[in-house]
Specification:
By secondary structure, this protein is α+β, with helices and mostly antiparallel strands. Helix content is 47%, strand content 23%. The radius of gyration is 23 Å and the shape is globular. Keywords: Signal.
Length: 146
């Protein structure tokens, strides 16, 4: 009888060890949220890391916007960063309803120095194909007020 307890204890300790190893591996596999992806994209862009920022675009967005065109498209964002600085804060996130009833998730940031006053002048806009996408479909700078 003692022997069955020791074997059972041995198997329980092996099982516990395996479960302990599985939890950290599972935690490392968590995907970034859309807010995190959008922030990583904008921070890379503002730091001048074009290739890193470009990698965040979806394959469809990359087909429509080659790297040279991508760099040109980012110029308005870079210009405003010269005025307001490269520090950004989450401004808002949500879903846009388009005319064809397609819901488009978006994440918007503002330059921190611009958001110190009531209502920022600009919104750094990042859009995704759907709520599960982790690659960026589009981006831009939206003027909110003169």
């Amino acid at each position: 009888m003692k022997r069955s307890y020791s074997i059972r204890g041995f198997y329980i300790s092996i099982l516990a060890g395996l479960l302990t190893c599985a939890v950290p591996a599972q935690a490392q596999q968590t995907r970034s949220s859309q807010v995190q992806v959008a922030r990583q994209f904008l921070l890379a862009l503002l730091a001048g890391n074009w290739d890193t920022a470009y990698e965040h675009l979806s394959p469809d967005a990359q087909r429509q916007l080659p790297l040279a065109a991508f760099r040109m498209a980012t110029l308005p964002i870079i210009e405003q960063a010269r005025t307001y600085g490269p520090v950004i804060d989450l401004y808002k996130l949500g879903y846009r309803l388009r005319e064809e009833e397609h819901v488009q998730p978006f994440v918007a940031f503002s330059y921190r120095a611009d958001s110190l006053r009531p209502g920022p002048h600009f919104q750094l806009d990042v859009t995704f194909q759907d709520s599960t996408a982790r690659q960026i479909q589009g981006f831009g700078l939206i003027r909110l007020r003169p």
